[in-house]
Design brief:
The chain is α+β, with helices and mostly antiparallel strands. The protein has helices spanning 3-12, 15-19, 33-47, 54-75, 120-131, and strands at residues 21-27, 82-89, 92-99, 135-140, 146-153. Helix 3 packs antiparallel against helix 4. The longest helix is centred in the middle third of the chain and has 22 residues, at 54-75. It is globular and about 35 Å long. It comes from Streptomyces bohaiensis.
């Protein structure tokens, strides 16, 4: 099937089905990957016509910035590529960032400690996810790394 046939079939499907799917890509663990990921995901969501208002789009960009920055800053030595996964399914958006470092961030499970300097970005991610009615967590990978993920409901 050529791309024109596929595109015209997309218009015949209900809007919910046009949006659902999973997209994966990898980026090098360098600072320049952070804005690239943010823009790439924003463009993907716009092309898929995902119903995100400005506030939720800001939350998505903030979450991605924090998660990819953590992968770049804390896992670069053990991570040749940082993985990013975007899933739209059943009215929910799931963002996952995978790196090869075995350390599991505790900030998603804890309350802020005034004496700790790091980890506040992940606390912000947790707060954004919970305020939007979503969730967040860390899942180990078979290769010994982890995926830090956030789910957000689409309204």
């Amino acid at each position: 099937m050529d791309s024109r046939s596929h595109a015209s079939m997309q218009h015949l499907l209900p809007a919910r089905h046009r949006q659902d799917g999973t997209w994966r890509f990898t980026v090098p663990p360098v600072e320049g990957s952070v804005p690239w990921v943010r823009h790439a995901v924003r463009d993907l969501l716009r092309r898929r016509r995902v119903p995100l208002g400005d506030e939720l789009m800001f939350a998505v960009e903030l979450v991605l910035s924090e998660l990819v920055t953590n992968g770049v800053r804390h896992a670069a030595l053990l991570t040749p590529r940082v993985g990013v996964e975007v899933t739209l399914q059943d009215g929910r958006l799931r963002l996952g960032v995978e790196d090869g470092h075995p350390y599991r961030p505790r900030a998603l499970e804890a309350s802020p400690d005034r004496h700790e300097i790091g980890g506040r970005g992940l606390l912000l991610v947790k707060a954004v996810a919970l305020e939007a009615g979503g969730d967040c967590g860390v899942t180990p990978t078979a290769a010994g790394g982890k995926v830090v993920w956030v789910t957000l409901p689409l309204r």
